[in-house]
Amino acid sequence: MRGRTLKEYIAEQMKDPEFKKGWDDLDPEFAVLEAMIKAREKSGITQAELARRMGTTQSVISRLEHGAFSKATLETIKKIADALDMRLVIKMQPKKPTTA
User: Fold this and answer.
1) What are 38-74's pLDDT values in tens digits?
2) Which of 15, 56, 63, 81 has its C-alpha lying 20 to 30 A from 5's C-alpha?
3) Helix axes 6-13, 17-25, angle to 10 degrees
4) Alpha-carbon distance 23 to 36, whole Å?
């Protein structure tokens, strides 16, 4: 018998409305986290270099990139963008698409 993959487990859990709501509520955090990691990697900057530019430690960057990002303040996110020589853009959109 083969174990389930993480994708299979998540798909099964998504059938639970409470789990799905919690998962969906984390979408903004996941999007910012993914954007930060992609920007850092595209710039060819290591976690250690990003940390140096921000005046923090590599372990802080690692924790942010591994899920502690939801605890990051807007100030921290702005520091990350500055350290990556990027402009932070935040926009609000309707939760549900409007139909014509």
Assistant:
1) 999 999 999 999 999 999 999 999 998 887 766 788 8
2) 63
3) 110
4) 20
Residue 72 neighbours by CB distance under 10 Å: 18
The CATH number of the domain where 27 resides is what? 1.10.260
pTM of structure: 0.68
CA atoms within 13 A on the CB side of 1: 2
In this model, does residue 25 exceed pLDDT 80? no
Report how far residue 20's alpha carbon sits from residue 59's, in angstroms, rounded to the nearest whole number: 31
Domains of the chain: total = 1
Q: How far is CA 20 from CA 8, 10, 12, 29, 95, in A?
A: 14, 9, 10, 15, 15
